[in-house]
């Protein structure tokens, strides 16, 4: 499930020219209906590119397999497939973007709405099959410890689900992350920085002097950090004989080495035991 989007695209392209997808749903009279549509092998990747940042998804950031990923609910993706953006694209390229809404006016008949949902579901299934989207389970803070994960106050943890349940409130994670302008800018910046470092002998005297003071300042900050860590550990070891097992030892800056922001690492000033971080990380 952790294949990249490029490999997923290659898998889809290497498949048959047309593949049939059938989804069965229960109608009001308890009879099963199905719609069979032909999916172009280019459809999954094209739909993913079009809807990756669609506002209807209301995507959130989460930690999936130790990295930040965008996740959303199934019902949100169905709404994105019914959005004017996708509808307009499906009219221009129906072979690449299978139509979901066939009428010019919004459907009011329950049967028409049901048919639209089935068509949207078929498209969604193709994205799952090509692993552009994977099913996930959102964990609460108390469930993170069961999976040996540390709660994070900014991003909820997500784990891979073995089964894709197409229910409105089920969560899914994007496994397709195209390069953005920010990534391109960062790449150019890294290359520029490397070239600047290589050209250090050509730097004017004031730049060399500035880099010297900057490096000395960085080393001083690093030294202060290590000294603070040693003092912190020393105080903790001294406090152990005077503290009971319930409260635990004294810690200066208990969140110093925790997975949190720079400012949060120095809050609170002190604490006792190993559980001081848990209440602050609950969402």
Automatic annotation (TrEMBL):
Q: State any GO CC term.
A: Sec62/Sec63 complex
Molecular function as annotated in GO:
protein transmembrane transporter activity
- Tell me which UniProt keywords the record has, alphabetically: Endoplasmic reticulum, Membrane, Protein transport, Translocation, Transmembrane, Transmembrane helix, Transport
Polar residues bias spans: 19-29
Q: Region entry Disordered: which residue ranges?
A: 1-39
Q: How does it sit in the membrane?
A: Multi-pass membrane protein
**In what ranges is there compositional bias, type Low complexity?**
1-18
The transmembrane segments are 181-200, 212-235
Q: What is its main location?
A: endoplasmic reticulum
Q: Subcellular location, in the record's words? A: Endoplasmic reticulum membrane
Membrane as UniProt keyword: yes
Q: Which InterPro entries match?
A: Sec62 (IPR004728), Sec62_asco (IPR011553)
GO terms classed as biological process: post-translational protein targeting to membrane, translocation
- Recorded family membership: Belongs to the SEC62 family.
Q: What is this protein called?
A: Translocation protein SEC62
């Amino acid at each position: 499930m952790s294949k990249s989007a490029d490999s997923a695209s290659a898998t889809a392209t290497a498949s048959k020219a047309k593949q049939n997808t059938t989804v069965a749903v229960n109608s009001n009279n308890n009879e099963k209906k199905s719609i069979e549509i032909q999916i172009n092998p280019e459809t999954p990747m094209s739909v993913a590119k079009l809807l990756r940042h669609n506002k209807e998804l209301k995507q959130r950031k989460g930690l999936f397999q130790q990295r930040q990923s965008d996740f959303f609910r199934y019902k949100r993706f169905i709404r994105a497939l019914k959005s004017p953006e996708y509808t307009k694209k499906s009219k221009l390229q129906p072979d690449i973007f299978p139509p979901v809404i066939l009428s010019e006016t919004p459907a009011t008949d329950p049967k028409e709405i049901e048919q639209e949902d089935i068509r949207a579901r078929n498209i969604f299934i193709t994205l799952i099959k090509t692993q552009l989207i994977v099913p996930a389970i959102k964990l609460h803070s108390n469930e993170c410890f069961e999976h040996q994960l540390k709660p994070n106050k900014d991003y909820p943890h997500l784990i891979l689900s073995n089964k894709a349940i197409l229910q409105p409130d089920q969560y899914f994670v994007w496994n397709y992350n195209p390069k953005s302008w920010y990534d391109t800018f960062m790449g150019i910046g890294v290359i520029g920085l490397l070239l600047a470092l290589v050209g250090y002998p050509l730097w004017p005297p004031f730049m060399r002097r500035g880099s010297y003071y900057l490096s000395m300042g960085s080393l001083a900050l690093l030294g202060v950090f290590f000294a603070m860590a040693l003092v912190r550990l020393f105080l903790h070891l001294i406090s152990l004989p005077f503290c009971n097992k319930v409260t635990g030892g004294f810690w200066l800056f208990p969140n110093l080495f925790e997975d949190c922001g720079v400012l949060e690492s120095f809050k609170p000033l002190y604490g006792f035991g190993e559980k001081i971080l848990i209440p602050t990380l609950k969402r």
